[in-house]
From TrEMBL:
Protein name (record): Sigma-54-dependent Fis family transcriptional regulator
InterPro entries: AAA+_ATPase (IPR003593), AAA_lid_NorR (IPR058031), Homeodomain-like_sf (IPR009057), HTH_Fis (IPR002197), P-loop_NTPase (IPR027417), Sigma_54_int (IPR002078), Sigma_54_int_dom_ATP-bd_1 (IPR025662), Sigma_54_int_dom_ATP-bd_2 (IPR025943)
Keyword tags: ATP-binding, Nucleotide-binding, Transcription, Transcription regulation
Domain Sigma-54 factor interaction: from-to ranges: 141-369
Cross-referenced Pfam families: AAA_lid_14 (PF25601), HTH_8 (PF02954), Sigma54_activat (PF00158)
Amino acid sequence: MSQRRVFLRIKDAAIRDRVADALVSPVQAEDFSEAGAWLDALLANRYDLAIVDATGCASDALWSLAESPALAECEFFFLSDGTPNEALDKATSRSGGFHFRAPYDIEEISEAIAEVAAELEVESEPVATPTGSQLDQYGLLVGSARPMRKLYRTLRKVAASEANVLVVGESGVGKELVANTLHQASDRSRAPFVAVNCGALSPELVESELFGHTKGAFTGAHKAHEGLFAQAEGGTLFLDEVTEMSLEHQVKLLRVLETGEYRPLGGSQLRNTNVRIVSATNRDPEVAVSEGIFREDLYFRLCQFPVRVPPLRERAGDITGLAQHFLVYRNSEEEAAKTFSAAALQLLEQHPWPGNVRELKYCVERAFILAENVIEPEHIILGDMEADRDSAYTVPQVPAGVPLDVLEQAAIERTLAQNDGNKTETAEQLGISVKTLYNKLDKYEKATGDGAPQSATDSFNPE
Ligand SMILES: Nc1ncnc2c1ncn2[C@@H]1O[C@H](COP(=O)(O)OP(=O)(O)OP(=O)(O)O)[C@@H](O)[C@H]1O
């Protein structure tokens, strides 16, 4: 295994020495404590672990760090004198790192560093071109790229806590898998994991869906209904696309989180709730707050611990591994032994995957159906998102006899991909309600049992 690279910027020599002692395993420590260009070095190189004393750092340097992709690659430990610092808070939360404030408990810092250094030690080298399903797995998540391993470490720690977690990431990166994995790794794993897509709830039904209702609570309430909070009692409630909930309902949700109590519609009794809330959004939550569509107080309640799921483009090395993984599973389900040609793997690896893991999974599904034994580049339907975006609206040549439901699924998949997974925009463009869109997607997911729909583009590709 190659030596781990450690970046050091610690002004106080005594602390620097103690930190160096904590790095018991063989590491290549690079000391930028006195260097002016420390940030350039940190951003330009690939470090495994960085210990950065932020005291006296220029604010723009910290902001550059807070916004850099390097945060996903490396384990960060920040030290500071405790002066409130927004950029440092952001860098700490985006990196999932530690922040120790003066006066330092050097034992605690050394222990934390030694623990992370030991974890890095046992990590295996990334596999360049796996030939089977060879990626690491944590819970339901598959992936060996460094940002994924970092995510696993974070999840392990957060799972042991009771903090509400906000999972942030682009569409299809695996946010629901993260939520489910957190639940399974937590002490609540024997109780239910209940997921709800807030964007799909019709506004009139949100309250009854969340909190339940009594018989006769409103016209049409023919019988009592257990809400999602009751269904998830003792377990985890996953609020997907939480930023899509109306402001009115956000207030109601906030009240429950603050008081731990809710009242079913039509009921007179308050009920206590004991659920852990994991929520997710593919928006930047801070932007959603500044745009006024996400209440700041709710954001703070939900985001006691933020978890960012890296997109595939930050997971070099995982693309072919994930493709192999999906193929291996499909082979075992169908009792087949299909393989990828080297050219097909190369094609997959070079694609930017704007729709992320979900799109990669669908693509492997399609290729599996089209290929006899060896998946070649011609079996891989990637879709040119940029061309689609730029092209004027034209009705494609539709072959005669294509079933309408296949056409419908193809239209939905295309539009979703073109909108980077944004379901509200997709539904609007297709002229259907968001709820109908969710129902249709749900139907496609269930069609193959494992959440991997057989894409309509298998049999209908308008290009
Ligand atoms: N790390 C992973 N390992 C294995 N499969 C994955 C991984 N990440 C995502 N997937 C697969 O990709 C698909 C999308 O995952 P998921 O629904 O968790 O994403 P999401 O980010 O919640 O999506 P959305 O933004 O639409 O809510 C699922 O079929 C899931 O099984």
